[in-house]
């Protein structure tokens, strides 16, 4: 089991010497606040690492998203991108006007507030498992649930809600793609300097592995911070070196993890 940032006591003590840069890998538009918080958190180091942004996922809206005739009791937004691209679909926005809204995490809930001017509930453990543990998702027999998401991804929410007796509809409003060829070349060049990569999704991890042409069979000295046990298992299978694991994917959790690492805090 990989320890979280609050549990580790064997992390590299000279992280500030080893890493001269930290790479934020979230899609465009989702990194400025995180980058600024990291910069501020590490400012008192003698030689703070450079905070850079190399998105590992390119987000594209799906065209011709079908209209749904349902009026859901409850709506789950899987990500900030799901909120953003749903909000632009005027033919669908009215369907959730009277629905109770849920988000997988705090950042997604903030996007719901920004784009839809509504409040969304989110779990303390900010992932699908945490969401499913909420009381509102336990007694769902006969309820109509709508999941707004990107193409592909995990089916856990849908499967569990169905087993609990809910009626579930999913709408895909965007797709995840590899970065452009030009962007991939930049990522390849950056990797030569052996930075510390912040990885918060399986898609980002898989794309980094693919872009760098890495092998699964042996450690390739690509060092990362990950945000969940599920990601840790996948990263180890693909030969990545996990430097630390944050308590979750929220910005505050990532910043705290990086601070613990660079200041050698437990």
TrEMBL record:
It catalyses: hydroxymethylbilane = uroporphyrinogen III + H2O. GO terms for molecular function: uroporphyrinogen-III synthase activity. It is an enzyme of class 4 (lyase). Keywords: Lyase, Porphyrin biosynthesis. Coiled coil: none annotated. Pfam families: HEM4. InterPro entries: 4pyrrol_syn_uPrphyn_synt_sf (IPR036108), 4pyrrol_synth_uPrphyn_synth (IPR003754), UROS/Hem4 (IPR039793). Its EC number is 4.2.1.75. The keyword DNA-binding does not apply. Residues 53-256 form the Tetrapyrrole biosynthesis uroporphyrinogen III synthase domain. Pathway: Porphyrin-containing compound metabolism; protoporphyrin-IX biosynthesis; coproporphyrinogen-III from 5-aminolevulinate: step 3/4. Belongs to the uroporphyrinogen-III synthase family. PANTHER family: UROPORPHYRINOGEN-III SYNTHASE, CHLOROPLASTIC (PTHR38042). This is Uroporphyrinogen-III synthase. The lineage of its organism: Bacteria, Pseudomonadati, Pseudomonadota, Gammaproteobacteria, Oceanospirillales.
